[in-house]
Amino acid sequence: MSTQVKEHNKNYEEVKSYLEKVLNLIEKDTVSKEDAEWITKETVENFRDHVNPGFLDYRKTVTKDTQFAAVEWSDSGSRFKDVNGKEYIDCLGGFGIYNVGHRNPKVVHAVEKQLHRQALHSQDLLDPLRAMLAKVLADITPGDLKYSFFVNSGTEAVEGALKLAKSYSNRTTFIAATKAFHGKSLGSLSGTAKSVFRKPFQPLVNGFRHVQFGDIDMLRKTMEACATTGDDVAAVILEPIQGEGGIIIPPEGYLKQVRELCDKFGALLIFDEVQTGMGRTGKMFCAEHSEVVPDIMCLAKAFGGGVMPAGAVVAKEEVFKTWFPNPFIHTTTFGGNPLACAAALATINTLIEEKLPERATEVGEYFINGLKEKAKGHEDKVLEIRGQGLMIGVEFHKDEVGYEVSKGMFDNGVLVAGTLVNSKTIRIEPPLTIEYAEVDRVIETFGKVLEQVKA
Ligand SMILES: *Cc1c(COP(=O)(O)O)cnc(C)c1O
C-alpha cells in the first residue's frame, strides 16, 4: 500500500515538471529555437505514442520519415504560423470555422470580457446570453425559425435536429443524400453517406435512406414508396451546398422542389448549414439563395467565430413546441454556455457590421475567376472549378493530382483542404475577411504549382 503511494508521488513529480514546462510555453508570446525543437519533438512523439500514430502517416504536414513536421503555434487574420515562425495563408479555414478570421478582435474581446465575469453557467438559474442569442437568431434566420437549442458541435446540432423531428412527427424514417456529411456520432453518422465512416459501426439509427443529391425524381419516388409502405418520412436532411462531399451545388430549383415534396408528404425539412452558414456562401444562410425556409436548421463551425466551439438547432415554433412541456427531454451541460454565446453574439455582429456575406460574394467571384484563369491549359489535370461565395472547390481528374497540388501549395505557404485520402476536390474556404493581396498570392501559387504537377 505504502509503496503504491510512493510510486504515485514519484510519477506526479515528473508530471508536475512536465506540466510546468508546457504551461510556461503557453504563456510565451514567442518561442526560442530550442523551444521550437522541443515542441516539435514532443508533438510528434506524443501523437505517435498517445494520440494516434495514424495521423503522422496521413497529415501532409509530416514528411515520410517524420524529419519535418509542421506544428502550428499561433494565428491571426487569414494566417497562422508554425512553431518555427513560417507563415501560411489559411484557405482551409478549419473547414469553415474561420469566417470572421482567426482570433477576430471583436470576438476575442467579447469572450475575454465574459470570461472575467462568468465562464460557465449555474445550470439552474436563467442564463441571459442564451436568451439574447436565441432572439437574435430568430431575427436573422430565414422565415419563421424561432426557437434555438444550443450545442457544442455540428454533430450535436444534427443529433438535436433528428431527435426533434422524431418527437414532432412520431415517425422514424429519414431521407439524406449521397455524399452527405452530417457528422460522426451515431445519429448524425446515419445521415452521413460515406461507407468508410459508416460501415464499421452498423447498424446505425434505424430508418435512414439515401437518395442522389440533386435528383428530385429519385426523392419523389422514394417519398411515394415510403408513403405506400407506411415508412412515413419524419424529415429530409440536406446540406444546401454539400461541403465535405466536394462543394456540390444542387441544380437550380432543387431545394424549392424538395420543400414542396416535404410539404406534400408531411415531412420536415432540415437544412444542415453547419458549413454553409454564417455568411460563407454570400448570404448569412445558404437557404436564402433559394428562398427556401427549412423547418429546422443546424449551425456550428463558424457560429462560435473561430474562438469558441458552439452550435445551434433552430426550429419553427410549430415544431419546437413539442419540447415545451418537458424542456429536459434533450439537454447538454455545456451547450449555450456564456463564453460560447458571447462568441456567437460578437460573430453575428461582426458579420453584419463588416458586411461579410456580401464580401464573400465579391471576393469569391474574384477568387474563382483567378483560379480559372490559372487552370487554362491544364484541362488534363483540372476538371472543374466551382463555388458560391467563399466556398470553393477545385475538382481534379485524379485524387493524386489534387493531393500533389494541395501539398505543393502547402510547401509554398498556402493551406487548402486536400488529404491523402480525399483530394479529388480540394476545398478553398478562407476567412471572409481575406485580403485581396492574399487572394492574389493564393492564385499565383496555384498557377505555379499546377505548372509543376504532372497529370
Ligand atoms: C463539419 C460538419 C458537421 C459536423 O460538425 P462537427 O462539429 O465536426 O461535429 C456536420 N455537418 C456539416 C455540413 C459539416 O460540414
From TrEMBL:
<keyword id="KW-0032">Aminotransferase</keyword>
<keyword id="KW-0663">Pyridoxal phosphate</keyword>
<dbReference type="Pfam" id="PF00202">
    <property type="entry name" value="Aminotran_3"/>
</dbReference>
<dbReference type="GO" id="GO:0033094">
    <property type="term" value="F:putrescine--2-oxoglutarate transaminase activity"/>
</dbReference>
<dbReference type="InterPro" id="IPR015421">
    <property type="entry name" value="PyrdxlP-dep_Trfase_major"/>
</dbReference>
<dbReference type="InterPro" id="IPR005814">
    <property type="entry name" value="Aminotrans_3"/>
</dbReference>
<dbReference type="InterPro" id="IPR015424">
    <property type="entry name" value="PyrdxlP-dep_Trfase"/>
</dbReference>
<keyword id="KW-0808">Transferase</keyword>
<dbReference type="InterPro" id="IPR049704">
    <property type="entry name" value="Aminotrans_3_PPA_site"/>
</dbReference>
<dbReference type="InterPro" id="IPR015422">
    <property type="entry name" value="PyrdxlP-dep_Trfase_small"/>
</dbReference>
<protein>
    <submittedName>
        <fullName>Putrescine aminotransferase</fullName>
        <ecNumber>2.6.1.82</ecNumber>
    </submittedName>
</protein>
<dbReference type="InterPro" id="IPR050103">
    <property type="entry name" value="Class-III_PLP-dep_AT"/>
</dbReference>
<comment type="similarity">
    <text>Belongs to the class-III pyridoxal-phosphate-dependent aminotransferase family.</text>
</comment>
